[in-house]
């Protein structure tokens, strides 16, 4: 008989991954389009900022988020005063942390997909009188489906594998912020290797399957070819 | 006739042989088909892109039918979206995610099914309308690209080497189609090409662009033909082989698809495969035989 808390933790893990991926699709696509189809001042800085989570220790990001969430600092004080919301050690708090931490995994595949499209596609849209949004949603994005799929799956898998940020800003609260990767560490510390083993196996299987699936799908999908 | 398009364009370019100043002034009359001819890297496509608003000029002014498209002096620059111009790209820029029908429909300012069907019919694409562009042949893609460009109902049509991607045998037929269409729709057209036969077949007037400047303009025969030879038989041809003998040079040239050997005196002119040449025969009564 498996503990219901085990399922709760696992469900929270996947809920976090799905929420993060969904939010990142919404905010990541416009950012990737901005970076992938434009040249502007400050682009190198924005590029670097978005890639920071790739090189920054998760504990550093977690630390800064904790500082920001604190009711003693901005913007934590505003959230507390206006909405009575406290983000530290809450599910919403770890969602925000995950979104920031997985940002490059969403943006980079979409950005490079857009950059690989011939510029004549968006120029043709412009000469046909279409604005940037129509061009992006009707022409550019439908032609980089493999990149979108890769971005989504990488973000999802990366969020499942998150440890440091969630631990720093979420703690380890059952049903609220305890996700599987933290549970593995915790169960081992509490000398329950069989539970840790179960979590580990599930995470391994899920992420491995996802990566194999995108490889197979992307191989079949026709990538954009010049005529 | 009052000029339909008036363009004064300056732009610094980085060509393969270093920086170059594109400095061109020309006009196009209403309904005219004008070719912009020159070697690659001479700035032909840039002129087209500047007229369409895809590239900003360093300075200059472009007027289309009395309305100002861009003027660097007054800092006016109309976005490509707002210009009544159709642009056909060298790679056709067809949208691979849409069917033929959707490609054309997307280009319509307002959805109009009758017109859509008419365009599909006109370009002989009706049977293929639910196919995707990747399934088409070169000629069909070219027709789709043209149909899509026309669906916008542009006042000025810009064609960037429209036939460079198709092989010579269908190129001939497509040139005919283009010509018929341009005449029937009376649409003012500026066509970029580096193919001399195409200039003769399609254009009423040609602008010769060399290293960023328009060197000559006029009807193709005036510009390329030598008036002093009083036009006996003139063939546009391309040198494919050069054999140097003692006092003469034997050139193998290709006029259309017909190869022939001609002997020329050895002088200071050197010939290389790929050179475009005008073969003029001074025979007073050349043999002409009807073959069809």
Write structural notes for this entry.
The complex is a heterodimer of chains A (227) and B (292). With 227 residues, chain A is an all-alpha fold. Helix content of chain A is 76%, strand content 0%. Chain A has one domain: MetI-like (MetI-like fold, Orthogonal Bundle). In chain A, helix 1 crosses helix 8 (145-160). The longest helix of chain B is centred in the middle third of the chain and has 18 residues, at 168-185. The relative contact order of chain B is 0.14. In chain B, 24% of the residues lie in helices and 36% in strands. Chain B starts with a strand and ends in an 11-residue tail after the last strand. Chain B is α/β, with parallel strands linked by helices and 292 residues long. In chain B, the strands form 3 sheets. Chain B has a 6-stranded mixed sheet, sandwiched between helices. The interface between A and B is medium-sized, with 20 and 30 residues.
List the helices and strands and how they pair.
The complex is a heterodimer of chains A (about 230) and B (about 290).
Chain A: H1 4-37, H2 43-55, H3 58-69, H4 76-83, H5 91-116, H6 119-127, H7 132-140, H8 145-160, H9 164-170, H10 180-189, H11 193-220
Helix pairs in contact in A: 1-5, 1-8, 2-5, 3-9, 5-8, 5-9, 6-7, 8-11, 10-11
Chain B: E1 3-15, E2 18-29, E3 33-37, H1 44-52, E4 59-64, E5 67-71, E6 76-77, E7 85-88, H2 100-107, H3 113-122, H4 138-151, E8 156-160, H5 168-185, E9 188-193, H6 196-202, E10 205-210, E11 213-218, H7 220-224, E12 233-244, E13 248-255, E14 258-265, E15 276-281
Parallel strand pairs in B: 3-9, 3-10, 7-8, 8-9
Antiparallel strand pairs in B: 1-2, 1-4, 4-5, 5-6, 10-11, 12-13, 12-15, 13-14
Helix pairs in contact in B: 2-4, 3-4
